[in-house]
Design brief:
This protein has about 800 residues and is mostly helical. Helices cover about 60% and strands about 0% of the residues. It comes from Kalmanozyma brasiliensis (strain GHG001).
Length: about 800
Amino acid sequence: MDSIEVKPKRADSDTSSEKLKHEASDKDGVEVSNVPYVLKGDPTDVEFAGNVPSPEDGVVVHNAADIVTQVLSLEDDPSLNPWTFRMWFLGLGLAIFGSVLQEIFYFKPQVIYVSLVFLTVIAYAFGEFMAAVIPRRGWMGRWLNPHPFNLKEHAAITLMASAGTQSALATEALAAQQLFYGGYPSKAAGIFLVLSSQLIGYTVAGLLRNVLVRPVKMLWPSNLPLTSLLETFHGSKAPDAKTIVKKRMKIFWIIAAIIFVWEVFPEYIFPVLEGVSIFCLARQDNMVFTNLFGGASGNEGLGFLSICFDWQYIASLGSPMWLPLETMVNSLVGYLGCIILFMGMYYGNIFRAQDFPFLSQELFDGTSNGTNAFIFNQTAIMTPEFIVDDQLLKAEGLPWLTTTYLAYLITTNLGLTACFTHMMLWNYDDLKAAWSWASPSSIKELISDPHWYKFWRTSTPEEDQAWAAKMMDDDRCDPHYKIMMKNEYKEAPMWWWGALLAISWAVGLVCLYVMKATLPWWGFILSTLFTFVFVLFFGAQQGITGFGFNIQPICQMLAGYLFPGRPLANLYFTCYTYNAAAMGGVLARDLKLAPMCTFAVQVVGCLVGGMMNWVMMVDIVQNQATILKSVQGTNIWSGQNIQQFNTLAIAWSIAKDMFSVGAKYQWVTLAYLLGFFVPIPQYLANKIYPHRVWSYFNISIIAWYMGWLFVGINASITSYFAVGFFAQFYLRKYRPRWFNKYNYIVSAALDGGTQTLVFILTFAVFGGSGKDRPFPNWAGNPDTSVHNLDYCAVSPIVVQ
């Protein structure tokens, strides 16, 4: 990792972190422990946002150990109590709010993620409000308001909200079974299946916390901005700290109120603002213009040079105001490559591209042509038990994918394995240090303990003391964890995690058989073993680099070859591997943020969130089934996630005919192998002609973005890059003080105001309560049967 610098105010000859904290002021930025920093696209470098001083102006940070000691606060007050009425009330409330909103977003034409930063800011505002208005005297004060709102309460609320604000992939599997397989037999089993799939990932990460959390190399960079925000609210000892926080909160509420009112227009009254295309307005009858410049409607086009005024879609994958400049450059290169690749393959008629819609996640019948596209009849190739029959498949013929969807599968698979090579070539030292626990000597030491496999065994006080002494002397151990042991905080014992895993696993196995999921018991055992492997390896990679892998394609490929002919087994195997591994990553990340009391708040948040996920899924599928099955959907609802999930489940269930070497789509599988070699030329070029520009580009990120536009509303991409480059280049470089003080709080306000309004509109007018109330058609809300929202021509291909 390259050296990076903390930018505190000049501190004469004393550069201790304590003095730097007290001397920094809001005028010159923020105190050293709160300096906003962003992850660079390498993505292991960390770069601080602000003026770059000479070395004597601050502390030079070289590695993860320096970050956790020089940047993040090492102060702790053991007397602070997180177990308050405020914590439970706000934690549960935000977990419910976030889980409902996230499930709604999964049925949108573009997936949007609830902002955890926004929930953190809201938790602070409501926590301070409750501390101010609830009486502090008498029995009410003793139980409801025992002390001022503190950091540990705030962190616990954030952890519970984080656990709840995770849309369970099991709800997609259930929705697919409901929409495409005639329904599932038991609602009760469906609920428990959702909960068990969420908890298995959590418990696996809890059992692996010695590897994923405690080493100092496991920085979990995605926590850094959130930690900075928490310390901004609670960590400053400066005399004017309260004034600074109040000023920033005032900015937050003003921006949130403005965007709340504004979003009524693009979301409901004036949806043309979702994507304004000058080219489509000039040529409303040209399909090339639609495919290239259109993108305001779901699965319409690539949205090139369209302008979006709807923050919901601009920040759909995360606010561009947070995105590091280097990552943005890599994504821009991939985005431009995606446009060239998709247009070239479609108009080159690769794999009969023009016989099918330009963008779609459905499987199509081979009898489709440039006028009519016939959706593949999946029920015609399956028995009543939903198992593919080879004779029926032969009679029906193999299904076809749209060429753009095929390109997405190839580029993302290529990018996945390219990431391994990129990390080994450019970040080998970091990986080697972080994986030192896997050395032969460490493994030998582990298994020398006769009780190493007994996770259910409670350790003795003597063993606890020996373990603490060993960790205190271990340079690889996180300093924050050492403070926790020094202050004698109690962690959830290992057997708690093991017991919860056993219970969740047993419940999941029963549910799978009740649901007639066709996943055999031995397949469920394999799913759990793969979850351990994926959480261990991909979780460690994310903890080091901050880059999360989308392992869903690998899980569905494994299921395809393990359970040939069983698409439902594919759905649920993926649910218990990909989804469980993703939830494991969430737990490990949050354990790094606050290792105390996490067991209780995360398990409760997970259970509440999973329950609300299921409730919202049932409501949306019942009321919007017809739209969810359609190819394009509407600008409000879309089943593209479910369609994509089901499409891959069916396609991989006949993998030997679809994706194996020699088959029609063999490059989807070969891309995994090719990806290992793609980053090598760049690395060799740097060895021959050394230059910083070679390391600036990350081939794995570029490859992933080359399939970016295969789905959803793409009219927001131009605005996404415009906002991102304005914030991360112009403001960060030329207005650093404003950037340090307000960039992240403004970003949270924009997310919060927008997502709150979407939550309200979903139930008020978008049909979330069972009845929709569409706004009357006018020039700003055109009839989409004649034109798309941006007035681009509607595709002449009729999907049947």
